[in-house]
Backbone:
């Protein structure tokens, strides 16, 4: 923005302000009406939707699906959409950080004097695409299935392990045959061909990357789970 | 559009030192009688009760004057309240204050929840049960806090969208945009740390995933997730740490930054919608007439340039 643009803006703004109305009572009126609506909506949501408690937190659970709250769905889904392992650091490190820095520094690189959205095609397009992308990812996150069934024929001795996998929420992040969500975690259908049994156990216990640790599972269940997964090649 | 006169400040709220002297003959004197310079007329007799009543009537004004002599805020307050907001200000401009009100709801309900909540891994869950089931209106307040967070997150994004599409972050309001983005991050931090506090299954596992996502951040990511978790596993210390962040650290920062944000809003003024243009004062030079035509054309709010013949032409031509 050139100095004369700044000067022109300030002059224009002074004129607009002269033509304006006083903050009190005109703007205060609108703000108060809006405040009432906000409080009314919050109270109505509280009455209608309530504040039910779920079951008590239990690290040893085998039936709960780890998912973030809805405002972080877009972040969670971003990890799910970007699948190739070599791109995962970009999804987890790159995109959110770059977006945050871009957002913070917006006024320092977008310094044109134009303010009308239809005359700032790049900014407006980028804004709309961001909104659509975040909306779509949030929608994916909200509707993403968290099945706890595995339709897979396995030998009798692997059945207990299959139950552990199905009941421990693994499918929230891993695809297994026809079931489960494809990401953020890698597909498990042929996991045994990629990593050995010991590595499977280590992953379950440590929880590498964004994966939660399942160390609290009883050792017997971890054994059964590892038996089942290391049979998948 | 008619111009609005600056509302007159009622005499009662103007402290005595700033009050204009009453005009002779008007009934505005504190005694409620016309001042008389006739020495012959005897001063009206007043009972002690009347005098007390008079002093009582003046007491709030005197008290106000006393405070204002020491704080000198009346100029700022009247300046802030009666400052003009630019032409074209519409309902989109209420999103910021709506976010503020959502924050006030969160702060108020949060104080009441804190009176009954116990931030320990063993008692957190039962204290929430107690709030929900036994404390009068407990579930209502808890629900308001829970859903208020979603409302606030939505409102702050809408407010940011308005600022973005209206180009309101541009000169001279760049720093207020930066403060706003920091407030957005802090709001998300509040949403994240508050989610663990009920300590049920949903919040427990959501926090594990959230902390792990944090852990994938660049350079500081792993340290940040270790700091949040307060150890290798999510547990009792994590809960008290989240509680402290949620109750003390972030709210303090948010309140301070909201203060800075609003100070800059008052200082710099709110923007007008980008398509609203000012009517230039009419000057008899052809250049300024051309200007007026262009401005008249750029307007979409239905206002007309007062008596400018060029504006109609401009509207038709382009």
Residues:
């Amino acid at each position: 923005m050139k100095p004369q643009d700044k000067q022109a803006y300030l002059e224009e703004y002074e004129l607009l302000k002269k033509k304006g109305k006083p903050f009190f009572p005109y703007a205060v009126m609108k703000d108060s009406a809006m405040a009432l609506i906000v409080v009314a909506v919050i109270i109505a949501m509280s009455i209608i939707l309530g504040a039910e408690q779920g079951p008590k937190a239990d690290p040893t659970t085998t039936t709960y699906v780890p998912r973030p709250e809805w405002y972080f769905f877009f972040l969670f889904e971003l990890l799910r959409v970007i699948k190739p392992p070599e791109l995962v650091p970009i999804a987890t490190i790159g995109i959110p950080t770059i977006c945050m820095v871009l957002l913070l520094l917006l006024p320092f690189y977008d310094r044109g004097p134009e303010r009308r959205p239809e005359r700032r095609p790049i900014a407006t397009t980028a804004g709309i695409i961001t909104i659509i992308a975040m909306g779509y990812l949030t929608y994916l996150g909200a509707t993403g299935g968290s099945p706890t069934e595995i339709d897979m024929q396995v030998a009798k001795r692997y059945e207990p392990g299959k139950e552990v996998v199905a009941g421990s929420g693994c499918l929230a992040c891993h695809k297994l045959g026809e079931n489960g969500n494809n990401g953020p975690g890698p597909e498990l259908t042929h996991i045994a061909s990629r990593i050995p049994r010991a590595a499977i156990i280590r992953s379950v216990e440590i929880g590498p990357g964004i994966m939660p640790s399942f160390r609290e599972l009883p050792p017997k269940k971890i054994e059964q789970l590892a038996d089942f997964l290391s049979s998948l090649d | 559009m008619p111009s609005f006169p600056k509302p007159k400040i009622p005499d009662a709220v103007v402290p005595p030192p700033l009050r204009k002297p009453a005009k002779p003959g008007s009934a505005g004197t504190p005694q409620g009688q016309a001042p008389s310079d006739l020495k012959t007329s005897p001063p009206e007799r007043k009972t002690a009760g009347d005098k007390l009543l008079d002093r009582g009537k003046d007491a709030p004004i005197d008290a106000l004057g006393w405070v204002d002599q020491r704080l000198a805020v009346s100029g700022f307050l009247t300046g802030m309240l009666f400052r003009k907001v630019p032409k074209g200000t519409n309902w989109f401009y209420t999103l910021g204050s709506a976010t503020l009100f959502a924050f006030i709801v969160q702060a108020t309900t949060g104080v009441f929840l804190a009176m009954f909540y116990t931030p320990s891994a063993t008692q957190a869950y039962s204290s929430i049960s107690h709030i929900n089931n036994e404390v009068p209106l407990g579930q209502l307040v808890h629900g308001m806090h829970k859903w208020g967070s979603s409302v606030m997150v939505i409102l702050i994004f809408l407010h940011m969208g308005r600022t973005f599409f209206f180009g309101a972050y541009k000169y001279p309001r760049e720093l207020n945009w930066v403060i706003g983005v920091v407030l957005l991050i802090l709001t998300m931090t509040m949403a994240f740390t508050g989610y663990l506090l009920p300590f049920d299954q949903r919040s427990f596992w959501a926090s594990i995933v959230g902390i792990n996502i944090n852990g994938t951040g660049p350079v500081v990511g792993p340290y940040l997730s270790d700091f949040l978790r307060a150890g290798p596993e999510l547990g009792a210390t994590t809960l008290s740490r989240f509680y402290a962040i949620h109750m003390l650290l972030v709210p303090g920062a948010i309140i301070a930054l909201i203060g800075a944000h609003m100070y800059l809003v008052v200082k710099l003024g709110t923007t007008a919608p980008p398509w609203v243009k000012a009517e230039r004062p009419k000057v008899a030079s052809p250049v300024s007439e051309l200007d007026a035509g262009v401005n008249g054309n750029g307007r979409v709010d239905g206002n007309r340039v007062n008596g400018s013949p060029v504006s109609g032409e401009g509207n038709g031509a382009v």
The first strand of chain B starts at residue 84 and ends at 85. Confidence is low (pLDDT under 50) at residues 27-34, 286-318 of chain B.
